[in-house]
Amino acid sequence: MATAMYRPALGSATTAFLARKHQMLIDGQWVDARSGQTFAVEDPATQEVIAHVPAGDKADIDLAVAAARRAFETGPWSRISPAARQRLVWSLGDLIERDADELAELEALDNGKPVTNARRDDVGGSIEMFRYMAGWATRLNGEQIPVSSPGDWHVYSLREPVGVVGQIIPWNFPLMMAAWKLAPALAAGCTIVLKPAEQTPLSALRLGELILEAGFPDGVVNIVTGYGETAGAALAEHSDVDKIAFTGSTEVGKLIVKAAAGNLKRVSLELGGKSPAIVFPDADLDRAIAGTASAIFYNQGQCCTAGSRLFAHQSVYDKIVEGVCQEAGKLKVGHGLDPSVNLGPLVSNEQRTRVVGFLEAGRQEGAEVVTGGKVMGDQGYFVEPTVLARTDRTMKVVREEIFGPVVCVQSFDDSDLDAVAKFANDTEYGLSASVWTRNLKVAHMMARKIRAGTVCINTHNYGDPAWPFGGYKQSGWGREMGKEVMEHYTETKAVAARL
After folding, report:
1. Whether the predicted model's global pTM rises above the 0.90 cut
2. Does the CA dihedral 282-285-290-296 come out positive or negative?
3. Structural contact between residues 269 and 253, judged by C-beta atoms closer than 8 angstroms
4. What is the CATH topology of the domain spanning 276-465?
């Protein structure tokens, strides 16, 4: 495997976008940061600077929140009908579909992920998210409530938008995480200040252009680029923000909670994971090997749901380890814009340094590097897909989230499902898990016993806009997608009238 030391050609639309001056979207206008400062955006496969974007900070967040407040309380958005909201949200999905190839190229260039994956999953998933959530705009109804109080009463509830929402999204799925946040909030009638990750701001800014083209009123969606410790922190603690939605690390999630305490704003968090993939002896091994390899190497392992703890029954352990290593060897590593590539670079030098540190810790603690374990090439942030065997719960690589293409394999020999579930649940996280077996009883019993927000059977990294997604324990608060997400963006108002 060798890294590509060149950048494949870009489409004309992507080239034109990169050539434009990049500004922030506040109150329907493209503006520079108040400070005039910018920061560089780089291609993680080549380390080339591909753009500069505004370094927004507290002053810019203040302007964006004020614009969102005006749009929510006095602008046309406050009077728009549910059906009109539905049409706008749906039309944004249509515009993403129209420009799908350009957006996929931006994701591959900015994040490093394979463009084929970006087109199918990131862009395709974003389109479907806006279309699914558009339908909720006309379905957020209250209900008539029968009461037993003396006298004659008409008691009912209303569902109202929560207000101004701050949304902070991560760098691993920039466009799709923006869609996950924006679509339900817009359908509910909220207004938004979106802060993309500083590593990957480009698709959010392109999405801002599409939001204006779709016809959303000024101030409904505001996009402020900047660093987490400045713009992100200012948004989380802002006293005129009614709710904060964050996707990222558990460490930063805890800081968000503290920052939100000032005005007790509502908080939803989608945080880290250390997801188990459990292979039983009766599993379809070909499917399990391909599926568990994809579970960890997809998106360079930079997934909160990555199947980073692989538990294989001792009777199939050797076959699973060998098979996953073979799958790793099949991966073509290179620039994400190359459509034949299926493993790109990590997103940044900082992330590569983090992953390399975990690999060294694993070696020191006695893990066996069966394949991979090294940095690749002399350009870009590439790390080999890595399989660590002979790992156990005491090791740092097993306890902590690596967020890279590194899987820790452990064996089990217990047929008692409670004992197997204990292994799976032996983590501070509880985001996702997968179970690989032909036995339906085992599959569904394990799904009940695993303490995670999502459990997949004979697959991993499943997703659908109708599927509620979120975690137990330190993997977060609340759910994204599905009808459950609308609870985060609405308030319930109870009304009692004496007749």
Report:
1. yes
2. positive
3. yes
4. Aldehyde Dehydrogenase; Chain A, domain 2 (3.40.309)
**18 vs 34: CA distance, rounded Å:** 22
Q: What is the pLDDT of residues 431-480, one digit of tens each?
A: 999 999 999 999 999 999 999 999 999 999 999 999 999 999 999 999 99
The per-residue pLDDT for range 121-131, each reduced to its tens digit, is 999 999 999 99
d(C-alpha 456, C-alpha 129), whole Å: 20
Q: How many Cβ atoms sit within 10 Å of the Cβ of residue 21?
A: 11
Query: Strand, helix or coil at 432?
Result: strand
Angstrom distance (rounded) from CA 127 to CA 108: 17
Annotated catalytic residue, options 190, 303, 304, 325: 304
Answer yes or no: are the C-beta atoms of 313 and 439 closer than 8 Å: no
CA distance 374 to 371: 9
For residue 304, indicate whether it is catalytic.
yes
Average of per-residue pLDDT values in the chain: 97
Location of structure tokens 């009461």:
147
For CATH 3.40.605.10, the residue range(s) in the chain are 12-271+476-495
Cα 58 → chain centroid: 24
Q: Report the distance separating Cα 339 and Cα 118, nearest Å.
A: 10
CA distance 351 to 363: 19
Owner of token pair 């987490």: 228
Are the CB atoms for 205 and 56 separated by under 8 Å?
no
Distance CA 232, CA 210 (A): 23
Q: Where in the chain is the domain with CATH 3.40.309.10?
A: 276-465
Q: Assign 394 to helix, strand or coil.
A: coil
Task: Enter the tokens of residue 482.
Answer: 């599905």
Six-digit token pair at 258?
């503290």
157 forms beta bridges with 494
As a whole number of Å, the end-to-end CA separation of the chain is 77
Packing angle of the helix pair 174-188, 124-134 (nearest 10 deg)? 10
Q: Calculate Rg over the CA atoms of the chain.
A: 23
Q: Coil, strand or helix: which one is 348?
A: coil
Quote the Cα angle for 242-243-248, to 5°.
155
What number of residues does the chain have? Answer: 499
The answer to whether residue 428 is catalytic is no
Q: Domain 12-271+476-495, what fold?
A: Aldehyde Dehydrogenase; Chain A, domain 1 (3.40.605)
Exactly one of 270, 384, 401, 480 is catalytic; name it: 270
CB 388 within 8 A of CB 406: yes
What is the DSSP annotation of 66-125?
A: HHHHHHHHTSGGGT--HHHHHHHHHHHHHHHHHTHHHHHHHHHHHH---HHHIIIIIIHH
